[in-house]
Amino acid sequence: MLIFDTCPRLVPTENPSRKNTLRFLRKLEVYKSERVIIEWTVTTPKGETKYGSAESGRVASKSTLDSLKIFIAQDGTDVGLPPLELQEELAKVCGINSKDKFALLLYVLMQHELRSIEETLDRKGLTNEVNEFDDFKG
Length: 138
Prior knowledge:
globular, three-stranded mixed β-sheet, alpha+beta
């Protein structure tokens, strides 16, 4: 998946969590599974945890202190067309709020040629040098 090489370029420089986001992306792991079950929890102001009912989903993520795991349900859809939920999850993780970068993220997810992606991101003025990302060695 070419997202590993190019997604750091899409993380907004004004993102206050940029350094942590890049650390997560350095250790991004993507898994395909037969199904994804999503369970919602809410912590009340009193500190109580309330659980929602589990439901079937297409994409779920789990973050730890220094890594991010994304789980994608294999449901027979075309592997060349990532589910919208994957794009939404990556946009959330990367702090992407602009329509332009959201569209570029979709392009990155769907394009299979790294050179095309890099040329497009260069044309859009997104620098190829993301020193903070390179500083995290894994």
